[in-house]
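Quick entry, no commentary yet.
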Amino acid sequence: MTEIRIHRELNAPIGDVWRSLTDPDELASWFWPQRFGTECRVDLRVGGTYRIDGVAAGVAVSGGYVAVDEPTSLSFTWAWDGDDEQTLVTISLAPTDAGTTLDLLHERFSSAQTAADHEQGWNDCLDRLSSAVRA
């Protein structure tokens, strides 16, 4: 397994979900647990960059946007600080009667274990997103 796919049904309008994924303050509020002291920088455009920094936890991830199609699709590279591996994340959103579907594809992992670790991490993050957009 060198890729992961995650599907979520969110009880929020597509615009709210998009903002939670792309607005730096909103992203920082849910991406990692509060104790991480998360700070985010977002330059939301093709060729722009982002950084999600868990200051208190000493972890950070960053990358560049390769596709931005508001409010339905977002694709960006992903690299942990101190790690040479760069992967690719694509998030697709679609409106539904009940809210929004979110489909996440994270690909180009070098090992099945790394993919599995990221799958757990994404599920934890998306649990927090689901709670954040319903609040």
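second:
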Amino acid sequence: MINTYNETHLHRTLKEIYAGKHEGAQKEAPCGHFIADILLSDGGIIEIQTGTLASLAPKIAYFLAEKRKIRVVHPLAVEKYVETTDESGKILRRKKSPKKLNLISVFRELTKLYPYLLDRNFTLEIVETKIIEERIDYGSTEKADNSRRRHKKTWNKTDKRLDELGKATVLHGKTAWKKLIPTALLKKDREFTAPEFHRELLELYPKAKRQESSVMLWVYVKMGFFERTGKKKGNAFLYSPL
């Protein structure tokens, strides 16, 4: 039996939802050198990745080399609440996290996956979610297992719980990936700098951060949508669509 004790509620629930969409799907199925979250009856794979996407690179490469279709489902916490209880389970406090994620935030997770993003057998599904991060406050740093933390805390994270599913963005093939780019940046002979890329991006994603847009541009260059021309505008490099 596969050990699933370390699964979060978020991962476990999404696995149940996606497996339930496919008749004959097997969960936690051995598949070559790896364990597939969901193995479909046609040999396709669904991976639920609640952590960093980069860690999936070896698994994705293996399944694609096996000529299997693989869909990676990645929950994006667009809204998160932190729920803290004491050891008996009594809720001490519940607050909304100030951290804001958007579709562009995912690109920092894709810097090691770009070789696979346009593979005909690869699909990335980003699902907006509302999650609850569960914590237990022990009342003392001695009881909390936080030896690796620089600043000692009295609480530990214990789980992530799915509260609500929202919009899903399915990325498969060039057309789908192009839809994330402002059309003005795809015009023939258009040249732009990274700051100009960010300003255009804000029209579609008002909360996109400058650093996030720079990573997004880097990924799209690696995917072959843009190239760095070798010219500069001031101190900034110029890019153009291919």
